[in-house]
Amino acid sequence: MVTPAVSGHYAPGDLTDAVLDALTAAGKDVEHLMPADLAPLDQYHLGGTGATRGLARLAEVRAGMRVLDVGGGIGGPARTLANEFGAVVTVLDLTAEYCRVGAMLTERTGLADRVTFQQGDALDLPFVGGQFDLVWTQHSSMNIADKGRLYGEMYRVLRPSGRLALFEAMAGPVQPVHFPVPWAHGPAISFLQPPDSAQAILTRAGFRVVTWNDVTDAMRAPASGPSPGTAPDGPPPLGIHLLVGPQFPVMVRNYARNLAEGRVVVIQAILDRAMVGKGRED
User: Fold this and answer.
1) Which of 21, 39, 180, 229 is spaced 20 to 30 A from 158 at the CA atom?
2) Cα(269)–Cα(135) distance, integer angstroms
3) How deeply is 29 buried, as exposed, middle or buried, from its count of CB atoms within 10 A (0-12, 13-18, 19+)?
4) pLDDT in tens, 221-277
5) Quick one: average pLDDT of 24-44?
């Protein structure tokens, strides 16, 4: 199971007022939001909305597709998949506050009929087997040591010809990682796998690689560029720093350094649920 330390890292307290105040300060109509209004805040991964759209195209997301977003946070990618691609998305996240705020924002964007939230553990997914066409995950596996169980659960909830779309930070050839980073203040809750090891675990879980792209070079510029919380005159009202807290600027700098030094790599991949009899039982 996921440890309390991981849950604590992503437990910022009551976010509702902070998010609504930030949206108001940014000039947004909080009663009638557009998904794009939330982009500075709700795409908690490298590359932002562009990375989400790129993965969606690679995964061939289409109208009516049933998607499970594992570790989906406050729902930015899920709302993108629903609004721009017509998918029906369930967000699963460990942090109850993220789910609560995500549902509130989804209601205010008019997407509550296509995006729902459920608090839960990725190592024990609260869904019956074969329920989803696509399992989706962006920057969510770094805190999970038991990758075999994680990928087995993802396999289990996919229909027989379903797919897994992932966009993940993994261990580079140079170690150790410089901390803090956005997913961990220190090594106790950071469990990056090298890409070869991750691919082998995925294969043992029953997946077949369709596409496996190392996109580290493309992600170095977004990681090293200006970001919310790092400007000399302070952060703008709306940004990921609201979810992370005051250490966000140093986390961003360390992430960029880790990418530049080969300590972290970023993988974009699509895999098929190609085999029968793998994963956990229902």
Assistant:
1) 39
2) 12
3) exposed
4) 766 554 444 455 567 888 888 888 888 899 999 999 999 999 999 999 999 997 654
5) 94
Helical axes 147-157 vs 195-205, angle rounded to 10°: 40
Rounded to 5 degrees, what are φ and ψ at 228? Answer: -55, 130
* Residue entry with tokens 């966009």: 167
Task: Give me the pLDDT at residue 245, please.
Answer: 81
Query: In the numeric block, which tokens belong to residue 122?
Result: 């990725």
Task: Name the phi and psi angles at 255, rounded to 5.
Answer: -60, -45
Residue ranges in the chain assigned as alpha helix (H)? 4-9, 16-25, 39-42, 48-59, 76-85, 96-108, 147-157, 195-205, 216-224, 241-244, 248-260
Residues ≥6 apart with Cβ < 8 Å to 221: none
Dihedral in degrees, nearest 10, Cα atoms 79, 80, 83, 87: -80
Two tokens at 47?
Answer: 């590359």
- Cα separation, 90 vs 66, in Å, equals 8
| CATH H-level, domain 4-273: superfamily | Vaccinia Virus protein VP39 (3.40.50.150)
Over residues 161-180, the pLDDT tens digits come to 999 999 999 999 999 999 99
Query: What is the structure's pLDDT at 228?
Result: 44
SS3 9: helix
pTM equals 0.92
User: 101 with 74: CB under 8 angstroms?
Assistant: yes
For residue 222, the model assigns a pLDDT of 67
Cβ-contact 218, 259 below 8 angstroms: no
d(CA 229, CA 253): 11
Q: What is the mean pLDDT of residues 78-88?
A: 98
